[in-house]
Amino acid sequence: MNKLCRQVSIESPASAASGQRFVFSCDVPVPDVPSRGARIRVVCAGACYLPRRSPSLGSNESASSFSDETSVLTSDVSVEGDFPLAQPHQHGMRDASLFPGYEVAGQVEALGDEVLVDCGFAIGDRVIVYPYEGVPPGYVEYLVVPQLDYLIKIPDTMPLSVAAMLPAGALLAMNTVFSAHEHVQNLLSERGEDSICNILIVGTGGLALWALRLAAYFFSEMKERVGITIASLKDDGLVAAQEFQKVNVVQWNEDLYERQLIERTMDACGGQVDVVIDFGTTSRSLHRSLQCLGKGGVVFVIRDVADRLLPKFSRRAEERHQSIRPVEPGSLEQLNELVELVGSGKIEPPPHTVYPADQALDVVQKLCHSKIQGRAILRFYPAD
User: Mean pLDDT over residues 212-220, rounded?
Assistant: First the structure.
């Protein structure tokens, strides 16, 4: 009989409103090692804020058994601070879409029997897992990868809690900044030497804080010609953004009238902006972003959000001569570069807090009420 390991399944916190449990811990079989892959002992797992389209995770089912993808999201959620409500599921199924567990860092525990001696990996190596298509959802102590290409070694000086933030949130923010950087370069080239480009980053959770740091690094060669403003979705985001570096910050207080928020934002930006990176995308925030965007401007949004909101906003953007561009999660090459930048200290990671995995219930409750600044990391083993 296979040995058992611990798994944590997190259902939509919306279930708590009806008094239902929404965090489940169970034992599942330790997965077999793929012949050409590896088994990773997960030490840290990031509490991902990216909704994952996957089947719900049953409390008695192995995390390695899922590969199909179906949406469990409602029509209007924020990937940054608000938690999506789960749609009704089949009896006995748990919604694990909120925290898929694919931001993981750990150690190589076993290698497949067909792995070559000179493969570049050894038992005990500290690694992160690239979020490849079909990566198993759910927090589990042991994760298998079918091939070693999905593994990236991390420097000995990098804490595993920091490394766990890189494969999903930080990588997505990096690819978004790359896309914006290319657009800004073309824009400044067209406008001439004395032109200026204004960028608005919406949100102050982990995604936006990563984007701020990455933008500061990749736009450093043109910093005199690029202005960056943060539209904060919550009070602690104001402090986090201002502590990092001197940037314009405007608070999007949802209690204000829409026109007031738009005017406040354009005052902070010095007028309409050329680029919006929107990580807090609800229908309302995207509408506001388009109102703050000038003619010919671009809004960059996450692919999942674009799939949901483009049908509603594409015509409106076209009428205003604007565009909404979906951003993919990011490439393996970008993740390698990100590891080097963070490991060398060229980019400082956002604040994060580490919690034991058995406190997942408390962590989710705190996240629901914005009581955790930056990222939340679950720890299975004290390996650092």
Answer: 89
